[in-house]
Amino acid sequence: MATTPSIIMRGFVGTDPKLFAVHSRTGQSSGCSFRLGASRSYWDAASQQWKARPSTWLPVHCYGVLAQNVAGSIRKGDSVLVSGYLETDEWGEGDDKHSLLVLKAQSMGHDLLFGTSTYRRLRKTQNATTKSYLSIDQLTVPVSTTDSKAQSGVNITQDTCPEDAAELLDEYTTSQEINADGGSDENTANEEKNSVDADFLVGAEAM
C-alpha cells in the first residue's frame, strides 16, 4: 500500500494566514493558507562571513480546527515548525491546466529557538450541529457587570476563540432570568455560575 511520507519544514511565515471556506460532502469547514519561506546559511571563507542562500517558498494549507487556531495564533514574520505532507494541487483543463506543490499541514507551532510563545489549551465541546472549542483560561476570568451576560461570571472573547464558542455561552447566559436592574437572585446566580465553572474545569482536567 502506497503511503505519503510526512515532512517537517522549518521556516518563517511570509504572509498573514487567510481563512477560507471549504465545501465538502460532509458540510462546510474552514481552511487557512499562507506562504512559508525557508533558507540556509553557509560560511563564506573568502569573505569570512555567514551568507544566506536564496529562500525556498512553499504554500501551506491546513483545514478544520487547525485552520482556525493557525489564523488566531500565527502572524507574518513568525518562525514556525510545520509538520505535514507534500501534495500537488491541480486545476484547469487542457492547455489551461495548472499545478502547484503544496504543504498540507497536520500540525504546527512556533519555533522556540527564535522566540517565546504562550500556549492556551482549548476544550472541545459538542452541540447538536457543530463542534466548538473553548479556552479554559477564558471560562473563569472575572468580567465586568455592566451588562446581563457579564453577570454570569463567564466570558469568551471572539478574538481568542472560534466563532461558535460564543454561541455556547449565549445559551447558558440567556437561560438565566436576570431582572432589568441586574438583581435576580444573587445567591442562585452565584450557585449556577460555580456549578458551570466546576463542570468546565472537571472536563478540562479529564482531557
From TrEMBL:
Pfam families: SSB. One of its GO terms (biological process) is DNA replication. Keywords: DNA-binding. GO terms for molecular function: single-stranded DNA binding. It comes from the Bacteria. InterPro entries: NA-bd_OB-fold (IPR012340), Primosome_PriB/ssb (IPR000424), ssDNA-bd (IPR011344). One of its GO terms (cellular component) is nucleoid. Residues 177-198 are annotated as: Disordered. This is Single-stranded DNA-binding protein.
